[in-house]
Amino acid sequence: MAGGDQLTVQGYIKHHLTNGSVGEGFWTWHVDTLAWSVVLGLVFILSFRAVAKKATVGVPGKFQCFVEMIVEFVAQSVKDTFQGKNPLIAPLALTIFMWVLLMNIMDIIPVDWLPTLAMLIGGDSWEAIATGNSHVYHKVVPTTDLNTTFALALGVFALMLYYSIKIKGLGGFLKELYAHPFNTPWLYWFNFIIEFVSLLAKPLSLALRLFGNLYAAELIFILIAGLIGMWQLPAHFIWAAFHILVIPLQAFIFMMLTIVYLSMAHQKDEH
User: Fold this and answer.
1) In Å, how far are 110, 136, 259 from 16, measured between CA atoms?
2) 214 half-sphere exposure, CB direction, 13 A CA radius
3) Roughly what angle, to the nearest 10 degrees, separates helices 146-178 and 89-105?
4) Of 11, 99, 121, 212, which alpha carbon lies 20 to 30 A from 90's?
5) 5 assigned to some structural domain
6) Active site residue 198
7) Which is nearest to 250 in space by CA: 214, 201, 202?
8) SS3 assignment for 234-262
9) Residue 213 among the catalytic residues
10) Whole-angstrom Cα distance, residue 159 to residue 167?
11) Where are the beta strands (DSSP E) in the chain?
């Protein structure tokens, strides 16, 4: 954070937007992003597993109703969008939706609470924290880390390539790249440029859309806290009330685009 004995707004913002990391260069690991991603993934897996084990056919509990509503919503989305047969798609869509949703929800927690706790656990005094001399960095929203969104997008991209080649064959997949939209030999080079750029744009847009929306929202929360100080909570909850619409929407968009891209990968006779 800012040096000296007074915390500046610029230093405050910079500190909150810096990941806790180990290593150097390419081998830098964002330990806060990894930890929260794993924890939230386990929250999803263990909570849904507990509901599945205790599910009743009679009058279900509130949490079971909530889980069943989410599962039915995702299943219907897959049924309406996915043009193919693959038992992996529905569980994958549910996992993506819930995991991204839980990571996005971390954005609602007031920006100082968990980082301050991390600083205290890291051995900083209250004076060091208040004056901006903390040596501990901690970001709690994994989807504000470009590494997270790109990792998710690259996972989807790998599945796209795998199923495209598996369903259509290597020749069919390559033909989609060079023989569309103009199935004329002298325009194959033009088709390849257009289709190859379009193919690479899918994971790129998938990653940047999620990252951009959550990073911007987190930055506004940090600005509110940095400029208003002790009066941040009312303003925080006003912005959070609006942002509560963005959190599930971004998870839904990521899930739906994943379903659409994998559906395209399963279509043999698309062109």
Assistant:
1) 12, 10, 34
2) 32
3) 150
4) 212
5) no
6) no
7) 214
8) HHHHHHHHHHCCHHHHHHHHHHHHHHHHH
9) yes
10) 12
11) 21-22, 29-30
Flag whether 201 is in a domain. Answer: yes
Q: Kindly name the residue from 19, 134, 164, 213 that is annotated as catalytic.
A: 213
**Domains held by the chain: number:** 1
Under a CB-based contact definition with an 8 Å cutoff, are residues 161 and 136 in contact?
Answer: no
Q: So what's the pLDDT on residue 126?
A: 77
Indicate the residue type of 29.
W
CA angle 13, 14, 16 (to 5 degrees): 65
The boundaries of the domain holding residue 173 are 25-265
Instruction: At 121, list the tokens.
Output: 């656990």
In a domain, 1, yes or no: no
Nearest by Cα to 16 from 145, 147, 138: 138
Rounded to whole angstroms, the Cα distance separating 155 from 183 reads 31
Q: How many CB atoms lie within 10 A of CB 65?
A: 12
Q: Which pLDDT belongs to residue 91?
A: 97
Quick check: is 10 in a domain? no
Average of per-residue pLDDT across 205-226: 91
What is the DSSP-derived secondary structure letter of residue 106? G
Residue 35 in contact with residue 21, Cβ under 8 Å? no
Q: What is the mean pLDDT of the chain?
A: 89
* pLDDT for 245 beyond 70: yes
Looking at per-residue pLDDT, the higher value among 228 and 126 belongs to: 126
* Residue 21, strand partner residues: 30
Quote the CA–CA distance of 258 and 168 in Å, as a whole number. Answer: 19
Q: Is the pLDDT of residue 4 over 60?
A: no
